[in-house]
Amino acid sequence: MNVLVYLVPMALGLGLAGLFAFLWALRSGQYSDVDGAALRVLSDDDIEREC
Amino acid sequence: MTEALDLSLYAKPAGAGTLGMDLAVEGVSCGACINRIENAVKKLPGITEARLNFTNRRLHVAWADGALKPAQIVTALEKIGYRGHPFVPLRAEEEEAAEARRLTRYLAVAGFAAMNIMLLSVSVWSGNATDITPETRDFFHWASALIALPAAAYAGQPFFRSAWRALKAHTTNMDVPITIGVALALAMSLVETAHHAAHAYFDSAIMLLFFLLIGRTLDHAMRRKTRAVAGNLAAVKADTAHRFAGGELVTVPVAALRPGDRVLVKPGERTPADGKVVGGTSEIDESVITGETARRAVAAGAQVYAGSLNFHGALTVNVSAAGQGTLIDEIERLLDKAAGAKSRVMRLADRASRVYAPVVHATAALTAIGWLIAGASLHDALVTAIAVLIITCPCALALAIPAVQVVASGALFRAGVILNAGDAIERLAEADTVVFDKTGTLTLPEPRVINAAAIASDLLQMAARLALSSRHPLAVALSREASGAAPFEGAIEEPGQGVRAVIGGTEARLGSPAFCGVDDVTPVADASHIIFRHAGGVAEIAIAQILRPDAVEVVNGLRALGLHLAILSGDRCAVVEPVADKLGITYWQGKVTPADKIAFIDALKAQGRRVLMVGDGLNDAPALAAAHVSLSPISAADLTQAQADAVFLGDRLQPVLDAVVTARRARRLMTENLWFAALYNAVAVPVAIVGLITPLIAALAMSGSSISVTLNALRARMRP
To answer: Which pLDDT band holds residue B393 (cuts at 50, 70, 90)?
Structure first.
């Protein structure tokens, strides 16, 4: 069972990475306008400017 | 009109030589609006940031200081068809946003910890049933402890703080047993792990925090959503005033007015602030303030209150400090008294926890003593006692009420009722008497044409179109009958008399009888008259306050629910009586002062009644504060709305009935959930007392009871 000695910390590390990614997203305001974000991705604004 | 608009009140420093402003935007309906609005605003000179929040329909703009006037932003929005209403975010709203972010962080940490500990716990449980080595189990338990202890210390803060506050105030709340349960479960598990025991309860403690945080976060998110909508409505409602500034007129937001300012109130406008008339004569409608629908003549020297509707002439008003003038003083005094007399209603959750906490703690103590007497070791007795605490840990109990609260306030929100007070639902459910104000509450806030059926429809349409060219309040009421037509070209308004225009080669006149050359008017009781004359046709149009379109059905619906009904109005008895007759309300009073209203409500209270007060006028504010629970239409005076427990939107009275029905259903579900949690404990506690609980059973019981309580709460959203 020696494999657990590094597998369990690795699993925890991955989980922590996910947690910090979420906290970072929260801090940078990515959850402040969830309805808007769903619509902004559909906007062709950048393409229009090129032509 | 080339009057300058000054919005500098709303521009706030946003760092590094820039100014920022927030606007509530009307008309945002689809995704394409986001780009149109942001691009239009970004084209203005000096704009550094323009971002539309689609979720709450708010635009944040920042610009280099001095590069543009804030009014240009509003104009730019108007050009592309949106109305922007600048506002200053309320301190309370900002604090709630910060609290929401904090709660989400706690929730994220608790969720991370719960999932990882459960991963380890499931391995231990299945290992215990098969062939796990004690070394591996210890390793898993220590790993769980490593995650659980810091996670609980961080994510448990809202509960620990609230429990500490309650204990310091020598009371108890639901957070006290939660804190004790979590702390003891963690401490016991740590000791057990050090002694290489088979069972540890790290997962139970963290899962409890995780579930409770979900409830709290949702509750908070719902409150924030309604708060944002209420904030936008307030921004839309905020009026402007015409202020004299060195011989010029400047349009400023009402919030920018200071005592001593002079403002011009044009015909058809509402007085922006309390003050004294210094020039001009007119008639004003004070129904928003006193409930009285008859107009009062004012001239220089008269006191006017914010919200009075000006009829004929332009008035110059000297703004006085808020709360000056006899009526306002009286209302302030009554408000203070009502607030002082208000007994704190104990919330259902607090009542439940007051029974629950001592019972559970006594049971745990008795379990330990019982096992000691039966000859068990101190260690075993304590472990069993703590298992009792863990199994009763009030997960279902603590979720029972917030879960219903979230679903019910969502249902109310969709029905057009915005809650101001957190415990309004519980108090609404308890109401057994409804006291209505008349003007603006049972009747529509704005007057309407009442004899439309008696007038030839083409004549009425023409009159309504002509009325579009006037700002006189009666003309505004008449113009509501116009079906989407444009005003006539070349219409001329004669101040104080009426409007005229040439239609189809002949002159049409709309206004007073004298202006239209009509001598005798057949008066309709308590209505104002306006005459329309075109070619040979003459129409006498009667305009008065009318009942809300569904008032009769709603009042009948409330009566069917077994509620007693009454009307208290500041208006004349002759006007109140027909309204009461039509609604079938036998108990009514007219000419009631604010003090009388409070006295009436106090008398009902003394009989043991719980009064729901529905009112909109400034004169209703003290009564709203004194009542058990109160509702206001969105058109109510600001001071009044601040006293109401909930505000309802729209022209219909239906939200009042919906609010009572939904609140009663929610209250029933809350009680059901509490009984369910009690039943669950009645089954689980005996099992724990005899010492048969394992961490697996605890985890199953906790998730099972929490999920069933939450599912039951979802029934609060069903339509009756």
So the answer is: low
d(CA B514, CA B497): 8
* Model pLDDT, residue A49: 53
* Structural domain includes residue B667: no
Q: With left for phi above 0 and alpha for psi between -120 and 50, is residue B484 left, alpha or beta? A: left
The residue in chain A having the minimum alpha-carbon distance to the alpha carbon of residue B110 is: A19
In this predicted model, which residue has the larger pLDDT, B392 or B77?
Answer: B77
Model pLDDT for residues B133-191, shown as the tens digit of each residue: 888 999 999 999 999 999 999 999 999 999 999 899 888 888 888 899 899 999 999 99
Q: What angle do CA B425, B431, B434 make, to 5 degrees?
A: 120
Helix (H, G, I), strand (E, B) or coil at B232: helix
Q: Across residues B593-605, what is the average pLDDT?
A: 89
* Total domains, chain B: 4
Distance CA B127, CA B123 (A): 6
- Rounded distance between C-alpha atoms, residue B463 and residue B457, angstroms: 10
Largest CA distance in chain A: 62
Q: How far is CA B164 from the centre of its chain?
A: 30
d(CA B260, CA B8): 19
Half-sphere exposure (Cβ direction) of A46: Cα atoms closer than 13 Å: 3
For B49, the domain range is 1-88
* Model ipTM over 0.95: no
> How confident is the model at residue B1, as a pLDDT?
42
Chain A residues whose C-beta sits inside 8 Å of any chain B C-beta: 1, 4-5, 8, 11-12, 15-16, 18-19, 22-23, 26, 31-36, 39-40, 42-43, 45
Position B4 in a domain: yes
What are residue B4's phi and psi, to 5 degrees? -70, 145
The whole-angstrom separation of Cα B311 and Cα B297 is: 10
Structure tokens at B195: 């002694």
Q: How far is B36 from chain A (nearest CA, A)?
A: 10
Q: Both B233 and B141 in a single domain?
A: yes
